[in-house]
UniProtKB/TrEMBL annotation, chain A:
<dbReference type="InterPro" id="IPR003594">
    <property type="entry name" value="HATPase_dom"/>
</dbReference>
<dbReference type="InterPro" id="IPR003661">
    <property type="entry name" value="HisK_dim/P_dom"/>
</dbReference>
<dbReference type="InterPro" id="IPR036890">
    <property type="entry name" value="HATPase_C_sf"/>
</dbReference>
<feature type="domain" description="Histidine kinase">
    <location>
        <begin position="196"/>
        <end position="422"/>
    </location>
</feature>
<keyword id="KW-0175">Coiled coil</keyword>
<keyword id="KW-0597">Phosphoprotein</keyword>
<feature type="coiled-coil region">
    <location>
        <begin position="12"/>
        <end position="39"/>
    </location>
</feature>
<keyword id="KW-0902">Two-component regulatory system</keyword>
<dbReference type="InterPro" id="IPR005467">
    <property type="entry name" value="His_kinase_dom"/>
</dbReference>
TrEMBL record, chain B:
<feature type="repeat" description="ANK">
    <location>
        <begin position="175"/>
        <end position="207"/>
    </location>
</feature>
<keyword id="KW-0040">ANK repeat</keyword>
<dbReference type="InterPro" id="IPR011006">
    <property type="entry name" value="CheY-like_superfamily"/>
</dbReference>
<dbReference type="Pfam" id="PF00072">
    <property type="entry name" value="Response_reg"/>
</dbReference>
<protein>
    <submittedName>
        <fullName>Ankyrin repeat-containing protein</fullName>
    </submittedName>
</protein>
<dbReference type="InterPro" id="IPR036770">
    <property type="entry name" value="Ankyrin_rpt-contain_sf"/>
</dbReference>
<dbReference type="InterPro" id="IPR001789">
    <property type="entry name" value="Sig_transdc_resp-reg_receiver"/>
</dbReference>
<dbReference type="GO" id="GO:0000160">
    <property type="term" value="P:phosphorelay signal transduction system"/>
</dbReference>
<dbReference type="InterPro" id="IPR002110">
    <property type="entry name" value="Ankyrin_rpt"/>
</dbReference>
Length: 429, 230
């Protein structure tokens, strides 16, 4: 096979080709440089000429100096370290911090500590507590939060560390934590005081109450033997005092229940309970009182299966119902009907207690349920103003809600909505 | 026969009132102002029932109850706490230590008398059952007596076997007690449920206290059981 050998170019032609190519590249570079100068808004010292490579170089050097200046004068301590923790660059704030920590830099031959030596507990995004001199911080301590970013520094892997001084925030947080724990302590003392005070109340109450009950009996015995107009008066005062003691005891009792529920110490054990039956029981227990007050109670269970069970805490529901029903009895006058309904609406069980009593003024509706609040029209009906706030808390424990509607002079309607799907502790009793 | 009650209470005026109130009902009274004093009294006196406060100096009610239950001669004595401590934990502790009832201050006269009547009634019924048990021995024991004994002892297995044999589950003893009454009086809830499921009547009235079985259960604090009887 024959091979055609290429003839070498004559030297002159080769040189011309090379020169043309070089000229082309210079022209391209100038073109790109000018475009860059326009984009970066760099102008030539001689305004009539477009910016040349010399202007560009001057600009970049100036920018580099500015960036370094910025880095060095940044108010937060900043340092660049290599992988071994050697400090490659520290800004003024970092030097000031290191000096405050007791490191002494010899100006001619400064020796910087290794990162782990200066900051043994250092971890990115975590607080670092440092001892410093009092010129740096009057408390002698600073709390810093370090941010870290990996970079390349002069072709080798390195990291930038930026420290934020969070001493003020940290101090504020400590103050807040101290305030919270002292509040918790006060709250615990309040609970203890409440339980002690109620106990101390109860013993003399028991003495007074038993004396009154004895006086009551003696009055009755006396009435069998003798007739006196003073006897009736005496008995009336004994009865009145007995009622006052019962009221006082009710107040103590309710304060304890409320305190317990506020402190989160109320036991909440939802089990499947036949709510229909439970309501019936509460109605039965209050029927003698209702009959005495001539207030007919009607109970209608609108559940498909009246014995169906729902996940509720029987004791708390009993308390809720007794309280709402007693309220209905208290605020009705003879002949007015009280109706109780139990029904299912979607995923809710609704217990409704409706009366035809005096009703609640519209402006008081929102405040009902606040401890010790009583509506403006309660007059002389006895009560503590705690009952409804307890009811509200017990309903909350069931993740339910309490709905109150009322028309002044027409009556009130209390609806307790309880979720049917609440997680119960047992499937069967 | 007059019953004797022991009252243990550190508040002198309340102790006197209690004494007065119960003497009016015809009881004999022994008084003590703390657990230690009461224990000393028990060496020479044998009350039929104890009513006791919890928070007292020297020896509190819980400790006193423990000591009462530890001595064979007083181990089964009806014991009622009458206290200002109302927490559920205290009530549970009291019952665990073997108190029969737990009344809170201030108490009503009716409530106190009802509790005392119920506990004395229980004691009376139990001692009658004990007599029945000792009079009839071996195969001569009637099925009804055996059932009442099983209800008292909470012997569920025997109770189920006896129910299987058939017969009147509500056959009353001479005092008018049914097996279900005994199960409730002794707080044997499981035994009570077995009897209820087998058809025992919760509406029967306990003659000594004139309470129905359901009311007895409620008085004893067995609320869930009482509800199931509804």
């Amino acid at each position: 096979m024959s091979q055609l050998l290429k003839q070498p170019l004559p030297l002159r032609v080769w040189l011309e080709t090379e020169r043309d190519q070089l000229n082309q590249r210079v022209a391209d570079a100038q073109q790109k440089g000018q475009e860059l100068a326009v984009r970066l808004e760099i102008t030539s010292s001689d305004r009539s000429k477009p910016a040349g490579p010399h202007d560009l170089l001057k600009h970049f050097i100036a920018a580099e100096i500015r960036m370094r200046q910025l880095l060095l004068s940044h108010p937060a301590p900043l340092m660049i370290t290599d992988d071994e923790g050697r400090m490659l660059l520290t800004n003024v704030a970092a030097k000031k911090l290191l000096a405050a920590m007791g490191y002494n830099f010899n100006k001619t031959q400064p020796v910087y500590p290794l990162l782990e030596e200066a900051f043994p507990d250092f971890k990115p995004d975590q607080e670092v507590y440092l001892q410093v001199d009092e010129d740096y911080s009057p408390t002698g301590e600073v709390v810093l939060l370090a941010k870290e970013t990996s970079i390349k520094w002069q072709e080798t892997p390195a990291r930038i560390l930026l420290f934020h001084d969070i001493s003020v925030e940290s101090q504020a947080r400590h103050k807040l934590e101290n305030a919270i724990s002292s509040l918790e302590e006060i709250n615990r003392m309040k609970s203890e005081f409440m339980s002690m005070a109620t106990h101390e109340f109860r013993t003399p109450l028991a003495s007074i109450y038993s004396s009154l009950q004895l006086m009551d009996q003696y009055c009755q015995k006396l009435a069998q033997e003798t007739e006196s107009k003073w006897l009736d008066k005496l008995l009336r005062h004994v009865k009145r005092s007995e009622e006052a003691i019962q009221h006082l005891d009710g107040l103590v009792q309710e304060m304890l229940v409320l305190e317990k529920s506020q402190a989160g110490r109320t036991r909440f054990d939802p089990y499947p309970v036949s709510v229909g039956k439970l309501v019936e029981e509460v109605v039965d227990s209050l029927t003698p009182l209702a009959e005495k007050l001539e207030l007919p109670i009607s109970y209608s269970c609108q559940l498909e299966d009246p014995s169906k069970t729902y996940p509720v805490d029987a004791q708390l529901i009993q308390h809720i119902l007794t309280n709402l029903l007693s309220n209905a009895l208290k605020f009705s006058t003879p002949g007015q009907e009280i109706s109780i309904q139990v029904k299912e609406v979607d995923t809710w069980l609704c217990l409704q207690i409706e009366d035809q009593g005096r009703g609640i003024p519209a402006e008081d509706l929102d405040s009902l349920g606040e401890p010790f609040f009583r509506a403006g029209n309660v007059d002389n009906v006895q009560g503590t103003g705690l009952g409804l706030s307890i009811v509200k808390r017990f309903v909350d424990l069931h993740q339910g809600r309490l709905e109150i509607t009322s028309q002044l002079g027409q009556g009130s309607c209390f609806r307790v909505w309880l979720p049917i799907n609440l997680q119960s502790k047992e499937n069967e009793i | 026969m007059t019953k004797t009650l022991m009252l243990v209470e550190d508040e002198a005026s309340l102790l006197d009132n209690l004494e007065e109130m119960l003497e009016l009902e015809g009881f004999d009274i022994i008084k003590a102002m703390n657990g230690g004093e009461a224990l000393a009294q028990l060496k020479t006196h044998q009350p039929d029932l104890i009513v006791c406060d919890i928070m007292m100096p020297m020896m509190d009610g819980f400790e006193f109850l423990e000591k009462v239950r530890a001595q064979p001669e007083t181990a089964s004595l009806p014991f009622i706490f009458l206290t200002a401590k109302t927490s559920e934990e205290d009530q549970r502790l009291g019952r665990e230590l073997g108190a029969d009832d737990y009344l809170t201050k201030p108490f009503t006269r009716e409530g106190l008398l009802k509790a005392i009547g119920l506990r004395l009634g229980k004691q009376h019924s139990l001692s009658h059952l004990e007599r029945e048990r000792s009079h009839q021995s071996g195969s001569r024991r009637s099925q009804a007596v055996l059932m009442r004994i099983a209800a008292v002892e909470g012997d569920v297995k025997t109770l189920e076997d006896l129910i299987q044999e058939g017969g009147n589950i509500d056959l009353l003893d001479e005092q008018g007690n049914s097996a279900l009454m005994f199960a409730v009086m002794m707080r044997n809830e499981e035994a009570a449920r077995i009897l209820l499921n087998a058809g025992a009547d919760p509406k029967l009235k306990h003659p000594k206290t004139s309470l129905s079985v359901q009311e007895m259960a409620r008085t004893m604090g067995l609320n869930r059981l009482a509800r199931e009887m509804g």
